Amino acid sequence: MRFKYFLPTKVFFGDNSLIQNKAVLKTLGRKALIVTGRRSAKMNGSFDDITKALSDLDMDYIVFDQVEENPSLETIEKASDMAKGNNVDFVIGVGGGSPMDAAKAIAIFIKNPKVNSENIFDGQVLDHIPVVAIPTTAGTGSEATPYSIVTSNKEKNKKNLGQVVFPSFTFIDSKYTQNLPYDITVSTSVDAFTHLVEGYLNNNANIMSDIYGEKGFELFRECFKNLIDKDLDEKFRDNVIFASYLGGIQIAQTGTSLPHGMGYPLTYFKGIPHGLANGVLTIEYLKIFKDKERIYRMLNLLGMSSLEELETILRKLIKLRISITEEEINNYAKDFYTNKEKLKNHTEDVNLEDIIKIYKNSLL
Ligand code: NAP
Ligand code: FE
How far apart are the CA of 95 and the centre of ligand 1, in A? Predict the structure, then answer.
C-alpha cells in the first residue's frame, strides 16, 4: 500500500459552526478582507454571521462584494488593489466557489505586490496571506481544495491559478444553502458529483482518496432522489454539502479529469454553469472507459445497476440547449488536448478523436 495525503484545513461543520467557533479567527490577525458575490451572502445569513463574529471579537474588516460568477483576473486584481493599502491580515471568502476561489487568488496578490494579472502564470511558487472559506453552495468543495479557478479573458478560458492555497479554516453550515434556488442547487450538486467521479477514476486515486469518494457516492444515492423529487429539506442540504466537502478533500489529493477541463470552454463561450458543463459530458466520458470495473463499483455504491440508470438521472437534471457547431467542438477539443495536466489524470490512453467524440455525443 502506498499513498500521499494532505489536508491542512481545520473544518468546523454543522449548525452555527461559525458563531460557536469564531474565536479561532483571532489567530489570523486583526483585520480581514471579506470577499463575496454581489447579493446572495447578504441574503442567506452568512454575511451577517461573519460580520457579527468579527465585531464580537473586536476585529476590523473591509468588504469587497463584487465577485462575479467564474471570477476574472481583473476582478481579483481590483479587490487586491483595494486591500493593499488597508493592512489586511487575512481574507475571508463567503459564497459559492467563485468568491472562495477569488479570495484565494486575492490572498496571493496581497502577499506578492509585484504579482498581477499579466504575470501570475509565469510559473513562480507564491506564498499567500491566510484564507478562511465559508461555502454557501454545496458543490465546488473549494473550502477543502488548494485550487483557485479563474477566468482569463486574455486566454479566453478558465484555468487553475496553479498555486497552492488551502484555507486555514472553513466553517460549513448548510443553513446558508437552505434557500438556494432549485437550478443552482442542481448545477452545484452535479459539480460535487463530478468531483467524486473524476477523483475516483483518476491516476492519482489511492486508498485514502477512495474513502472520501465512496462515502460521497453513498450520500448521492439519497441526494439524487431528493434532487429528482425536488425535496430539498435540511437533511438533504446537510448531506449534499457534506458530499461536496468530501469531493473537495478527494480532488485535493487527485485533481479532476477530462470533464472538468473539457467543461471550461462551455462555461467561457456558452455561459453554461460550471457543474452542468462537467455534468453534461460525464456519461459519454464514462462510456469511453475500456475497463469498467471501478465504474461498476461506483454504480453499486450509488444503488444503481447500470450506467443507463445514472444517465437517466443526469438527463432529468441537466436540461441544456446548447447551440454549438462542429467547428467549435473541434477547436475546444484541440485546445483541451494540449492540457497535459488533465490528460495525465485519466487512467487510460485517449486520443483527440475520443475527446471530439465525448463532446459530439454529449452536445450535438
Ligand atoms: P458561484 O459562481 O459561486 O455562484 C453561482 C450563483 O449562486 C451566484 O449567482 C451566487 O450569487 C449564487 N449563490 C451563491 N450562494 C447562494 C445562496 N446560498 N443562495 C442563493 N444564491 C446563492 O457558483 P459555484 O458553482 O459555487 O462556483 C463555481 C466556481 O467554482 C467556478 O468558477 C468553478 O470553476 C469553481 N470551482 C472551484 C473548485 C475548486 O476546487 N476551487 C472546484 C470546482 C469548481 P452571488 O453572486 O450574489 O453570491
Ligand atoms: Fe468543479
Answer: 6
Ligand 1 site, residue 152, Cβ cutoff 6 A? no
- Please give the number of the atom of ligand 1 that sits closest to the Cα of 273: 25
Alpha-carbon torsion, ordered 117, 29, 35, 269, to 10 deg = 40
Each residue of 38-75: pLDDT tens digit?
999 999 999 999 999 999 999 999 999 999 999 999 99
Nearest residue (by CA) to ligand 1, atom 47, is 39
If you take atom 39 of ligand 1, which residue's CA is the nearest one? 142
Report whether 102 contacts 72 (CB < 8 A): no
Residues in the chain: 364
Closest C-alpha among 93, 92, 36 to residue 68: 36
Segments of the chain with pLDDT less than 50: none
User: What's the pLDDT tens digit per position in 285-296?
Assistant: 999 999 999 999
Whether the Cβ atoms of residue 138 and residue 220 lie closer than 8 Å to each other: no
| DSSP 3-state of 2 | coil
Element (H, E) at 49: helix 46-56
Per-residue CA distances from 55 to 38, 50, 185, 194 (Å):
22, 9, 31, 38
Distance CA 346, CA 172 (A): 31
One-letter identity of residue 145: T
Task: Please tell me whether residue 296 adopts helix, strand or coil conformation.
Answer: helix
The predicted pLDDT at position 340 comes to: 86
Identity of the residue numbered 105: A
